[in-house]
Amino acid sequence: MPYKRFVEVGRVALISYGPDVGKLCTIVNVLDHNRVLVDGPEPITGVHRHELNIKRIMLTDLTVPVSLNATQKCVRSKLPRDSLRDTQTLTDPPTFGRQLVSKWNKEGVLAKWDGSSWAKKQRARVARATTTDFERFEVMLARKARSAARKAKLE
Q1: Which residues of the chain have pLDDT under 70?
Q2: What are the distances in angstroms from CA 110 to CA 43, 51, 137?
Q3: What are phi and psi of 58, to 5 degrees?
Q4: Domain encompassing residue 146
Q5: What whole-number distance in Å separates Cα of residue 112 and Cα of residue 108?
Q6: 2 and 51 in a common domain
Q7: Residue 76 has what pLDDT?
Q8: Which of 29, 30, 67, 77 could form a disulfide with 95 if both were Cys (CB 3.0 to 4.6 A apart)?
Q9: Do 154 and 102 reside in the same domain of the chain?
């Protein structure tokens, strides 16, 4: 089976080390063989734009069709100054921007991630790690009851 997860612009990755561990990010530029520029987008995932070593991310199967150095911030269109003054005031909304946020929403990346088995295992691991002694006791009793019901059904 050929390798399918490549380090490429638009690849969604999971950060495995550092202050943003466990968060999703998008690769927006490959800087060299060891480093990539990632961006959350921050309003959705909480990851700010910064460079990361490739060893600190895990590539997912998800991709987002973004251009090189895609940004999440609003940027005004690149019109000449005079035409910008004529057509837009400072209170007008930007005419271009939030490419990363709009692509994430359009592709439904977060919903796809939440439906993946990787995310489900991660949630189960966190839930198991945060259980109290009494909750573990309740799980043990439920497991015993299920086992007894299965045994009674076989007999």
Answers
A1: 74-97
A2: 12, 22, 33
A3: -120, 125
A4: 116-155
A5: 6
A6: yes
A7: 53
A8: 77
A9: no
